[in-house]
């Protein structure tokens, strides 16, 4: 099983790019918990901490596709490193000045979120030029999804470690410094410096002019809603079954399931078009959310949380392939960044929606939301099946007929049946 992953990591520059991207994304991945801990240490309320975390999240959702388009236009080093430095400086200003005055605090956090570099989309744009073979790139997408699960599990632990060693302010500063170093490691690498986006058609919609990409984004909005609603429902469950420790176990179970599922999924080559396979994966994802409504005892609930996460990383990895197939020429970084934004917005919406549902109907109805959102995602994919298939075929034909020598920097594989 590990052979395919080891082959990827042994490829020139692959391990450096993956590690640098993960380290560079640490400020983004840990922003919510780091902000909450810092604001509370400064004497601020949970409400203020939540609002500041929300400001960061909204700014980040806006900034990712905008910066992604700039990367496609001007290259990675010119955009990624300056953005990382600006984001870190803004967060440093917030860490030094604190929450007073509030307008300055909101502005600093917003700037930090807005300029968080689109390293995630940038890495996925680099994989084809680093690995070349289609099956290797698809395995790398799965490895990418698995690595994300590890980062989002280890990130909060790293924050608490920094706080225990120093304090909340130092944790914010250290994590953002690490983010700059990670971005620097990526952009000075030969693949990043050499990468150029394919020639693009000037269009104000950019990547969003692809109807297939829009269909995928609509479906993944509801996958994000499912994931966001689980976190709130899990808090409600934990409140009645042991508190924060139980909540931690539920989230760890969810991450463990995603890690296991993504590892197995990426270890083999899959036959058939990825658009069809994604429908199956989303159906399985929705089905695995339904047993959570049983709300059994803690041990059984943790096991169910593991099961509920199994198909999350495979869905994300499969979506990466589809994004690459549907993104218009010259918009690949922007397209991947839109997927990040859509998923983030969906998760935030799920968190906001689950609160009133749990308040009105209890924990059981809170856990009904993920299954319902997963079902809606499947319906979107089924309803847009012709659009996804038609535009995918068009992308393959366009890639095959492209003779520009720069096209090699952003290859599209002509075999639509390997993923």
Outline the structure in words.
The structure is a single chain. The protein is an all-alpha fold and 419 residues long. It has 2 domains: 197 residues, MFS general substrate transporter like domains (Growth Hormone, Chain: A, Up-down Bundle), CATH 1.20.1250.20; 212 residues, Growth Hormone, Chain: A (Up-down Bundle). 79% of the residues lie in helices and 0% in strands. Helix 6 runs antiparallel to helix 7 and helix 6 packs antiparallel against helix 10. The C terminus is likely disordered.
Low-confidence stretches: 396-419
Helical proportion, percent range: over 70%
- H/E element string? HHHHHHHHHHHHHHHHHHH
C-alpha Rg, in Å?
21 Å
Under the CATH scheme, which class of the largest domain? Mainly Alpha
The domain tally reads: 2
Give the overall shape, derived from the CA principal axes. Answer: globular
Alpha carbon gap, first and last residue = 16 Å
Taken as a percent bin, the fraction of beta residues is under 5%
Overall CATH architecture of the largest domain: Up-down Bundle
Count of helical regions: 19
CATH 4th-level superfamily of the largest domain: MFS general substrate transporter like domains
Mean pLDDT: 89
Query: Largest sheet at a glance?
Result: none
The CATH topology of the largest domain = Growth Hormone, Chain: A
What structural category arises from helix and sheet content?
mainly alpha
Number of strands: 0
Organism: Streptomyces lucensis JCM 4490
Keywords: Membrane, Transmembrane, Transmembrane helix
Transmembrane segments: 17-39, 45-67, 79-98, 104-127, 172-192, 213-234, 246-266, 278-295, 301-323, 335-358, 364-383
Protein name: MFS transporter
């Amino acid at each position: 099983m590990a052979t395919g992953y080891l082959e990827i990591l042994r490829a020139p520059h692959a391990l450096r790019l993956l590690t640098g991207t993960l380290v560079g994304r640490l400020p983004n991945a840990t922003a919510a918990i780091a902000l909450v801990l810092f604001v509370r240490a400064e004497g601020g309320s949970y409400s203020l901490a939540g609002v500041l975390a929300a400001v960061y999240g909204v700014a980040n959702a806006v900034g990712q596709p905008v910066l992604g388009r700039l990367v496609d236009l001007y290259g990675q080093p010119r955009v990624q490193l300056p953005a990382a430095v600006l984001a870190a400086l803004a967060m440093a200003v917030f860490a030094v000045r604190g929450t007073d005055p509030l307008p300055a605090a909101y502005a600093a956090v917003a700037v930090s979120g807005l300029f968080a570099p689109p390293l995630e989309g940038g890495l996925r744009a680099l994989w084809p030029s680093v690995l070349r073979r289609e099956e290797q790139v698809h395995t790398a997408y799965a490895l990418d999804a698995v690595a994300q699960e590890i980062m989002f599990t280890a990130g909060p632990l790293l924050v608490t470690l920094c706080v225990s060693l120093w304090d909340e302010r130092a944790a914010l500063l250290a994590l953002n410094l690490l983010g700059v170093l990670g971005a620097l490691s990526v952009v000075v690498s030969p693949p990043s410096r050499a990468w150029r986006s394919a020639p693009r058609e000037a269009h104000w919609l950019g990547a969003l002019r692809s109807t297939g990409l829009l269909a995928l984004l609509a479906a993944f909005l509801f996958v994000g809603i499912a994931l966001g609603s689980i976190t709130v429902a899990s808090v409600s469950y934990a409140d009645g079954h042991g508190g924060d420790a139980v909540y931690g176990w539920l989230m760890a179970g969810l991450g463990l399931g995603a890690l296991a599922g993504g590892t197995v999924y990426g270890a083999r080559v899959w036959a058939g078009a990825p658009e069809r396979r994604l429908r199956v994966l989303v159906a399985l994802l929705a089905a695995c959310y339904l047993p959570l409504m049983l709300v059994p005892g803690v041990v059984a609930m943790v096991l169910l949380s593991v099961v509920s996460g199994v198909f999350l990383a495979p869905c994300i990895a499969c979506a990466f392939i589809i994004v690459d197939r549907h993104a218009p020429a010259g918009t690949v970084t922007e397209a991947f960044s839109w997927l990040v934004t859509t998923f983030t917005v969906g998760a935030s919406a799920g968190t906001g929606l689950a609160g009133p549902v749990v308040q009105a109907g209890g924990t059981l109805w809170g856990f009904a939301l993920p299954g319902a959102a997963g079902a809606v995602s499947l319906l979107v994919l089924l309803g847009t099946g012709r659009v996804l298939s038609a535009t995918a075929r068009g992308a393959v034909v366009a890639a095959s007929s492209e003779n520009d020598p720069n096209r090699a920097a952003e290859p599209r594989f002509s075999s639509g049946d390997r993923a």
